[in-house]
Amino acid sequence: MRRSDAERDEVLISAGELLNEGLQRGAGGQASAQPFTYTEFSDTHLNKVYFYAYDHLGNTRVTYSQDCKNWNNVEPSDEDDVNIEYAADYYPYGKVLREFVNERAEKYLTTLHQRDEETGLDYRGARYYDSDVARFLSLDPRADEFVDMSAYNYVFGNPVSIIDPDGRGGWDVVKGFAIAMAENAFGTPWSNWRSIPSYNNAGDYNRGQDMGDAASMLLGGFMIGDGGAKATAGGVGLATAGTIEGATVGAGTPVAVPVAGASGVLLGAGALEATFGGYLVLNAKSSLESRKGRVTNPNGSKGNPDHQEKVGELESKARSEAGEGEQVVREKKIQGHESNRRPDVQIVDRSGKARKVYEAERNPGRKRNIQRQQEYDRLEIEHETHKVKP
């Protein structure tokens, strides 16, 4: 059900600015150095390409579509033919403030998590989150890490800067955010402060750094604008002081001295603020583009031990289901199809094509997993996704 019946133009007052920026820069699969990032995927079943614009937290702000030339070619037929499918603005804790829905309602609203249409709850992996009350509905499995706070709290009361990707803990996100902000402000391109903190979850720590870099760019941009305005005002004040001095020198009244002094201070402070803001933006941009300080999974690309154990179970299951002459392949590029997917396990038939794939996922409901399933459907490959229990 909808949480609001806002008119299209009302919602697009704010969301439209984000859309226009996305159209100018295009939709790319990599994180942008700007405060907002853009990703895309196509749904050829509906004969359209859908584009998604997210803010720095991963909240879906605008969804728009373009018609495809045909089912097998996802290239848009007309670059100017853009249809707004969905747009939304949110309260800080994720409740929808206002939204516009055309034909396609969006399931993944805040921080790339799925929202149940009937209950309005977000599935966050370990537990459910209610954006109406800004609380989780069950205890945090890692509540012992922050005994001085409620085990039902969401992102320590800071939803504008921090996200909770899996419903468990959150200190790693906070650490990544704080160290990224500190190094962008006071570090150098050669410093390595991000390797100092210890962490439990590499993914959370990396997400915190991403948000810290994005926040640094926002803060730096504000400081550039604010400092520039102050410097301009100071310059105008100095010019005005000169005029006053010329007009009053005959009377011997030194009124220009305090005006010039205050204007000089304002000019210097503004220039200093703008310079620091520029330094902050450059550092943050460089860190975001180079992925500075990002850490990899200590268990390698095959995942944590519990994930590897689940993949082993799926491999045994696949071998029991494979027919005569068929092969079971583990953690390789999908066989015989035009796709770069690397399923955990796949059954390859006698012709060398994968006929069934198995995936082990900690959060099966995440958007990227749904997109992967849609691709398997398009390729007409039978697939199963099994949850890795925490």
Essential attributes:
390 residues, alpha+beta, tt1808, chain A, 3 domains, six-stranded antiparallel sheet, four-stranded mixed sheet, 6 helices, 13 strands, elongated, disordered N terminus
Describe the structure.
With 390 residues, the chain is an alpha+beta fold. It has three domains: 105 residues, no CATH class; 89 residues; 83 residues, tt1808, chain A (Alpha-Beta Complex), CATH 3.90.1570. The protein is built from six helices and 13 strands. Strands 1, 2, 3, 4, 5 and 6 form a six-stranded antiparallel β-sheet that branches. The protein has a four-stranded mixed β-sheet with strand order 10-11-12-13. Helix 2 crosses helix 4 and helix 3 packs antiparallel against helix 4. The N terminus is likely disordered.
Could you outline the blueprint of secondary structure elements for this entry?
Layout: H1 8-25, E1 37-43, E2 48-54, E3 60-70, E4 73-76, E5 83-90, E6 96-101, E7 121-123, E8 128-130, E9 135-136, H2 171-186, H3 202-248, H4 256-290, H5 305-321, E10 327-330, E11 345-348, E12 354-361, H6 367-378, E13 382-387
Parallel strand pairs: 12-13
Antiparallel strand pairs: 1-2, 2-3, 3-4, 3-5, 5-6, 7-8, 8-9, 10-11, 11-12
